[in-house]
């Protein structure tokens, strides 16, 4: 995410108080972000905190619901970071919770799907970032994009859509036992016609 300009108001918020708007992360990606953090010196870490701000919606009970950077947030918590910068996209704290979640869904700011790809009620969303569940297929989808399997796309939760595409095609046992082989298999099917509905797909369209 780019550095905000001077007229955007950022606030400091306790990292562990942020409320997730999804149920899972790819822990492979969390680990990669932790490894990168370990390479930074004091100045580099301060710059990372200043520039990687968390977009959030102010919701019921004045909680901040983050709509991006869940992986980074979890990585920073595990690295002992206490406070981050938040930019409030909307103040919806005055809405009834039912309407609040309806607006969150309307704006594509929430993804209430578990590690099996099944949808859950909003009340089942975790209360803290540390309660996010690992989804191996989200890890695979994130690495698939970095390996060139599909293009980065602005579509919300695009990597979760790819995770669902991979779910019936790559065995979870393979992801856990041999991630490199799982990635190779994912690359082999990423350009299939069956994936042409997905954001960032880079296969060839067959003429009929």
Architecture overview:
By secondary structure, this protein is α/β, with parallel strands linked by helices. The chain folds into two domains: 11-134, Alpha-Beta Complex (Conserved hypothetical protein from pyrococcus furiosus pfu- 392566-001, ParB domain), CATH 3.90.1530; 136-195, Ubiquitin-associated (UBA) domain (Helicase, Ruva Protein, domain 3, Orthogonal Bundle), CATH 1.10.8.10. Helices cover 38% and strands 12% of the residues. The chain has helices at residues 27-38, 42-51, 70-78, 97-106, 136-146, 158-166, 172-177, 179-190, and strands at 11-14, 24-25, 54-58, 64-66, 83-91, 133-134. A four-stranded mixed β-sheet has the order 1-5-3-4. A hairpin with a 5-residue loop joins strand 3 and strand 4.
Helix amount = 25-40%
Instruction: Give the tally of β-strands.
Output: 6
CATH superfamily of the largest domain: Conserved hypothetical protein from pyrococcus furiosus pfu- 392566-001, ParB domain
Question: Roughly how many Å apart are the termini?
Answer: 40 Å
- Helix/strand class: alpha/beta
- Percent in strands: 5-15%
CATH level-3 fold name of the largest domain:
Conserved hypothetical protein from pyrococcus furiosus pfu- 392566-001, ParB domain
Tell me, briefly, the overall form. Answer: globular
The secondary-structure element order is: EEHHEEHEHEHHHH
Low-pLDDT runs of 5+ residues are 1-7
Q: What is the top-level CATH class of the largest domain? A: Alpha Beta
Which tags fit this structure?
alpha/beta; Conserved hypothetical protein from pyrococcus furiosus pfu- 392566-001, ParB domain; Helicase, Ruva Protein, domain 3; 2 domains; four-stranded mixed beta sheet; two-stranded parallel ribbon; disordered N terminus
